[in-house]
């Protein structure tokens, strides 16, 4: 038979598209031609495929070979099509049967010796195949554990192209089943909040941030504990749900961060890029189709920007839209990709460029102002909690850690508060108070009475709070109430939320 068909999967970000690989062999000048928006990385596979077939002890058909990758309007790139093309060529040449390959998707690269090579993005690719009712998927051994994370599809594993041909011909054993690895083990030695001396107010802010999914800004002199606090935030967050774990693992798969023992990422991830990171490193970028950046790798987790004032202002402002929408859309010449970016942003910075104590500061007012203005107003308006982290007093520093609350104790309160919020918003698409739109909190039955809202309204009338700031104070108040086990925020909860938002105690509430 001169014509054969099989399947592969193309990826654009996390979006997979099942591709039909057609191969036609006809008389004419020997060679292989690709159609269907195959980029240079796919076209360059022609010599690699021939070498892999010959070195596997299989005869290469020296005829005119035409390979069509359909749909023709979907971009195809990378080595993920190698095995599918090789199998289609051999089936069209009559060297393997065509029926077993028709409904199978092949997601692997090929080496010159015929060994199957791992590729990135196997998890979202298998998810896409399952969504199109593909009954069987074949991957390289190095991707077996990752592919097997997807249920409802028959995952098969192969080491070499020769093994595949022997199995299809019936001359060798059938391809082995892929098996998932056990769930992600607990991370030993995770940082404990009990290690942080003093900082009662900052710890309270960290607990509120964890309970409601709020963004946090900390400013204070070096050594006060800003970094220690931020590093302990993931330990206060509950394990990811099945859906969230698949999303996070899929992003890490596309980024090539999963090894051959791939497991579902069950703990909230944390990204802490250096302040020299570029905009592409933060939000995603790269040639052709953009790869995920730090904000997507921190999806359902924490993005910590230490020395935030040292980041390029343009890179920081690029975070504004993803913080609101929960995703980032990247446009490149090769196409458009969309990555999830629902995260908690934690900013930490020194109060001035010299970063010395107030009594020793040598910065002039203009230098301090420039330092502060590197964090733009629109970005800061999206930060729910703002905390001044003061130097630790001697008495707190030498206080035994046994007297401090551990992350385990605080995480239990966080879990209870999140459960209360999830129950409240169960009829909506939101689960955390930090995600709920202000319009919902300002409408019945969630609108608080005027007496409770009086301090917030006063700050709004004075121009200290923007409309967005008003809504964020309401979100904080609901989280504080959840931590206290109250059904609705009290005036005290609102005042505490207002303090963490503005850094000032309202005179009326006091």
Compact description:
Helices cover 36% and strands 18% of the residues. It has helices at 40-43, 45-55, 82-92, 122-131, 144-147, 161-169, 200-212, 226-231, 242-254, 279-283, 294-297, 313-317, 320-325, 365-373, 377-380, 394-397, 407-424, 438-441, 450-461, 467-484, 491-502, and strands at 3-12, 15-26, 31-35, 64-70, 104-107, 109-110, 116-117, 136-140, 154-158, 176-177, 216-220, 270-271, 284-285, 291-292, 302-305, 327-332, 335-340, 344-349, 385-389.
Structure, described:
This protein has 510 residues and is of the alpha/beta class. Helices cover 36% and strands 18% of the residues. The protein is built from 21 helices and 19 strands. Strands 12-15-18-11-19 form a 5-stranded parallel beta sheet. Strands 1-2-4-3 form a 4-stranded mixed beta sheet. β1 (3-12) and β2 form a beta hairpin.
Topology:
Elements: E1 3-12, E2 15-26, E3 31-35, H1 40-43, H2 45-55, E4 64-70, H3 82-92, E5 104-107, E6 109-110, E7 116-117, H4 122-131, E8 136-140, H5 144-147, E9 154-158, H6 161-169, E10 176-177, H7 200-212, E11 216-220, H8 226-231, H9 242-254, E12 270-271, H10 279-283, E13 284-285, E14 291-292, H11 294-297, E15 302-305, H12 313-317, H13 320-325, E16 327-332, E17 335-340, E18 344-349, H14 365-373, H15 377-380, E19 385-389, H16 394-397, H17 407-424, H18 438-441, H19 450-461, H20 467-484, H21 491-502
Parallel strand pairs: 3-4, 5-8, 8-9, 11-18, 11-19, 12-15, 15-18
Antiparallel strand pairs: 1-2, 2-4, 6-7, 9-10, 13-14, 16-17
